[in-house]
């Protein structure tokens, strides 16, 4: 297990995760746009928000890959299946606590259930399991995160 292998897995995993979410959006399976969600926390400019969001999403992918790396090192074991389990846990956390509870607290442009009509939110609140963005959003999100974890764990194991 090497840091370079984990970084490569994190990059490829983030690429697959982001592409899966984008494809699902284009196919009408979800209205969620994770890079847009991240970017609008920093700017109200929609085009700039997407660009910043993609950059943040890829940086977060590397950060999470190294969190996986730290756990792999601590337990002296890694592999694609363990990475897939970590990805599932990360996806469940992201779809419940992170995006539903924590992000609306710090996101200055996200609506909440308490947003009133005169308040204009740039981003709709995700709701539990992000279902406000479509009924298939939880399945798409979990699948994409499992793929991410599988790639990070697999690359970590290959980096022997």
Structure explained in plain terms:
The mean pLDDT is 88. With 160 residues, the protein is an all-alpha fold. It is elongated and about 55 Å long. It has helices at 3-26, 34-39, 46-75, 80-106, 137-158.
- The gross shape turns out to be elongated
N- and C-termini, Cα separation? 4 Å
Percent of residues in helices: 55-70%
Q: How many β-strand stretches?
A: 0
What is the overall pLDDT average?
Answer: 88
SS field, number of helical segments? 5
- Poorly predicted regions: none
Largest sheet: none
Secondary-structure element order, N to C: HHHHH
Report the radius of gyration as a whole number of Å.
16 Å
What class do helices, strands and sheet pairing give?
A: mainly alpha
Give the amount of beta strand, in percent: under 5%
């Amino acid at each position: 297990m090497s840091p370079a292998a984990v970084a490569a897995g994190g990059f490829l995993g983030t690429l697959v995760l982001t592409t899966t979410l984008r494809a699902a959006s284009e196919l009408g399976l979800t209205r969620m746009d994770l890079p847009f969600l991240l970017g609008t926390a920093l700017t109200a400019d929609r085009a700039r928000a997407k660009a910043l969001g993609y950059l943040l999403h890829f940086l977060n992918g590397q950060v999470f890959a190294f969190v996986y790396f730290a756990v792999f090192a601590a337990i002296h074991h890694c592999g694609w299946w363990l990475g897939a389990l970590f990805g599932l846990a990360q996806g469940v956390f992201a779809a419940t606590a992170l995006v539903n509870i924590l992000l609306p607290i710090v996101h200055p442009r996200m609506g909440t259930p308490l947003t009133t009509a005169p308040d204009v939110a740039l981003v709709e609140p995700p709701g539990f399991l992000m279902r406000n963005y479509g009924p298939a959003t939880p399945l798409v999100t979990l699948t994409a995160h499992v793929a991410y974890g599988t790639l990070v764990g697999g690359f970590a194991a290959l980096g022997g």
